[in-house]
Amino acid sequence: MTDSEIAKKNLEGHTLSLCRDGVCLTSDKRGIAPMLDFIARGYDLSGFSLADLVVGKAAALLFAKAGIACVHAEVLSEGGRETLEKFKIPYTFDCIAKNIVNRDGTDICPMEKTVEKIDDFEEGYEALVRKVAQMKR
Questions:
Q1: CA 107 to each of CA 28, 49, 112: distance values in angstroms, whole numbers, following the listed order
Q2: What pTM did the predictor assign?
């Protein structure tokens, strides 16, 4: 089984799954929280295959920052797809969506709005960290 296949298999019951050379990580946190945590803790995720429930532009920017090798999304937004393509990250998906919506289903996800005009993953990461801190206040 490839790392990508293992990551997809391990996604069951989780929100995020990563695999590289027999090392597998999963998370049950929602949204971009798992990737923000892994990056903040200094995990070397370069070369990992990743499976995620929902991938928008915000998540894709974090994947690029972390050096993720390939991505499978159950739901992939158009902005997420464009970002993965920009950073040459191979991807598969089950369903494509125009946008990622907020948890209430009433508007576009605030993380997606935060990075709407950002194409640099470092700038995107910093903007997302600020937005999460602002929302916690």
A1: 24, 30, 10
A2: 0.96
